[in-house]
Amino acid sequence: MAQKNKLQFIILGLLNQQPLTGYDLTKAFDTEIGEFWQAQHSQIYPQLKRLEEQGYITHEITISGEKLEKKLYHITAIGQTLLGSWISDGTPDLTATKDEFILKLYFIQTNRDPRLKAMVQEQLQLHTDKLTHLQQRLATVFPTKASQTANYGHYLILQHALGREDYYVNWLNQTLAALPKR
Amino acid sequence: MAQKNKLQFIILGLLNQQPLTGYDLTKAFDTEIGEFWQAQHSQIYPQLKRLEEQGYITHEITISGEKLEKKLYHITAIGQTLLGSWISDGTPDLTATKDEFILKLYFIQTNRDPRLKAMVQEQLQLHTDKLTHLQQRLATVFPTKASQTANYGHYLILQHALGREDYYVNWLNQTLAALPKR
DNA sequence: CGGCGCATGTAAGTAGTTACATGATTTC
DNA sequence: GAAATCATGTAACTACTTACATGCGCCG
Q1: Statement to judge: residues B11 and B71 lie in one domain
Q2: Which residues does A80 contact at the CB level (< 8 Å), separation at least 6?
Q3: A68 CA to C23 C1', in Å?
Q4: Which of A88, A121, A155 is the last residue of a domain?
Q5: How many domains does chain A have?
């Protein structure tokens, strides 16, 4: 068995909230879910086909305008069962963070390496931008206490991502400050 | 062009420190570098072949015992150039963290979901264990101030991983504490 | 001399990215 | 009527995982 196919569960999870087209799902990966998972439409459409063959989803065709056909996918009862068991099953495998910057750092031998400062500064800029972006998203998507409990999981992970980014920025600042002056 | 092949740079980086066999490299992914990158020998051997064809590394054959041949790989001058330019080049793409637990959380609707508590507790256990492991590794590999500056990049990333794990554990504890009592 | 670790490879399959391809609808 | 966006698919390729396959060396 190769790596567990997580994309199928994401699709089931999204369809469990409301029926969507392949295009809608693709967009979801650009916005909402894009913070922590990516997929292109070329991966989504074949996956939808497979899920339907296996009976986890069905589709109905709706017509937009004159003749543009849209496939609106729905989750089935056994699809909901599969989704439920994935969520309930343990998650014993911790993710390896494949961070290219961290990888490069590993090969830096001394704190006098002339490349270090610029490298850290670049990452500081990038992660500060991301932090700002996440702060704005949290404020936009969950403006009130009530909205937080309404979609609790989504709130949790956004807030988690924000905290993680905050740590990263702080660490970069500390690392930069600790570099030798000349 | 598909995703940038980072494995080749890791191999070059390791060979830049000392000549190694494919087997040695494989082991490095189980220990040292395994905190933040994984690769199996089935991926490493073909990559070594390609790097040699392209002239970035060479190998010499050494005999162990009676007739067991070992290929000891060395980095070449152009291999060092390639490694250097990879490190110097910008790293503008932030890694998406594909964390399966976080993914599952996204689909939890309310903070009264009966599965939440057990899910968070399982992760708390796993991440606490990893934190402990990282603390031990940092203490083992870098026991003195002097040892930290000797292999600065390695020290930085271990210390970064430790801080990240520490944040994760704290966040899980807070999340657990914030769950409704009944 | 048996078992574990050293040592190197290939094969088959899944996951994921980039590119190719087509056409309809809406908006300006 | 042009451009952006909606909408769906396939093809080709790279990355990565799991399994298959083989043989030597060392230690007890």
Answers
A1: yes
A2: A12, A16
A3: 9
A4: A88
A5: 2
Name the nucleotide nearest B64; use CA and C1': D25
Determine which of A94, A113, A141 to mutate to test the interface with B (most B C-beta atoms within 10 Å). Answer: A94
pLDDT of B128: 97
CA-CA distances (angstroms) from residue A88 to A12, B113, B119, B133, B169? 14, 11, 8, 27, 21
Asked which of B88, B111, B135 is the last residue of a domain, the reply is: B88
Residue with tokens 């017509």: A63
- Residue-wise pLDDT for A56-108, tens only, equals 999 999 988 788 889 999 999 999 999 999 999 999 888 878 899 999 999 99
Compute the nearest-CA separation of B37 from chain A (Å).
6
- Residues in B closer than 8 angstroms to A103, CB to CB, are 6, 9-10, 36-37
Q: Which residues contact A7 (CB under 8 A, 6 or more apart)?
A: A39, A43, A44, A47
Is residue B94 included in any domain, yes or no?
no
Residue-averaged pLDDT of chain A = 94
Q: Of B123, B126, B125, B127, whose CA–CA distance to B102 is shortest? A: B123
* Residues of B with Cβ-Cβ distance to A168 under 8 angstroms: 164
Q: Residues B67-93: what's their mean pLDDT?
A: 95
Segment A10-21 mean pLDDT? 98
CATH number for the domain spanning A43: value is 1.10.10.10
Closest to B91 (Cβ–Cβ): which among A33, A106, A122? A122
| Residues 17-36 of chain B in contact with strand C via CB under 7 angstroms | 21-24, 26-27
